Amino acid sequence: MLIVITHTRKILEICKTMKNHQLKNQPLGGNVHPRFSGPGTFMRLPSTDVLKGLDVAFLGIPMDIGTSWRSGTRFGPKQIRAESNMLRPYNMWTKAAPFDYLNCADIGDIAINTFDLKDSVVRIASFYEDLLKYPLVPMAMGGDHTLTLPILRSIKRKYGPVALIHVDAHADINDEMFGEKIAHGTPFRRAYEEGLIDPNLVYQIGVRGTGYSARDFDEARDWGFNVIQAEEIWHKSLSPLGERIKNDLKQSPVYISFDIDSLDPAYAPGTGTPEIGGLTTPQAIELIRSLSGLNIVGCDLVEVSPPYDPSGNTALTAANILYEMLCILPNVGSKQLNTQ
Ligand code: MN
Ligand code: MN
């Protein structure tokens, strides 16, 4: 009898999975079409410009005109997509099955104006205005960090000031860069000034290196930001930090902005402004997994510069981090078995 019940349960489970598969977009599998060919979308998901019915929209924002040192992030989205082609649908540690629960697609790139940063910022905000008319989570592939400002402007219009988890080697709170208010080193000061984020619910994780003054990180602390310098988390598990953040944020809408230069250049050399002494890849994965259960309303992964990434490891890491973020989105995170 017990065997029959177990068997019936198993069949029901399989039917449920099949039903989900029939309803939701799936990445093209490597046993259906070789991974080195086929569509160039994120994880070889279907590409679409129909937003209705999507839970998650992957998109590229190929730009590097906001960078201050090495350029090349305009090629980031293309390379992240290329390296993502090896990713398979199920998370073997957390058991997350994002494509069973969320309808995902790659909606292509935003057409920025590569001759005009300010116009590009307007274009990104306008694209997001349309995107956010739908109940979906946008997951952006950058592109330099300037792009987070227009995204947060649009996010604020929909959700009000949001919580922010900002993982980065840099605080990106310069007032100006070479006299310009908009650049990849200024978005979070602008976001603070414009009231796009709740300063007490901002976590800047992994900041380090050299500054223009010894108080560079303290100004944001005075605004209310929780600034966790890289040295504070060297050699440590980041799960307790994730637990602390979850405890603070509860179900507040939160945006995650992940600058790939938060990782040590040993793991992610392909970026414009590398700083030594950064996060390890396991720490980055651990941090994201520990944020499972938060009310995430959008994510970005920025600053991948393929010309400085000869092995492709930086883009591969970026693709995996995006996948890990997908695995903790609402409706997936709650179904995870393993959060360590
Ligand atoms: Mn940054
Ligand atoms: Mn950075």
Task: Explain the overall architecture.
- 33% of the residues lie in helices and 16% in strands.
- The two termini are 36 Å apart.
- It has 340 residues and is of the alpha/beta class.
- The structure holds manganese (II) ion (MN) (2 copies).
Give a nutshell description of this structure:
Strand 7, helix 10 and strand 8 form a beta-alpha-beta unit. It contains eleven helices and eight strands.
Strand order in space, largest sheet: 2-1-3-8-7-4-5-6
Bound ions, cofactors and other small molecules, one mention each: manganese (II) ion
How far apart, in Å, are the first and last alpha carbons?
36 Å
The outline comes out as globular
Beta strand count: 8
Order of helices and strands: HEHHEHEHEHEHEHHEHEH
SS strand fraction? 15-25%
Give the C-alpha Rg. 20 Å
Percentage of residues in helical conformation: 25-40%
Number of helices: 11
Q: Name the quaternary structure.
A: single chain
* Average pLDDT, all residues: 93
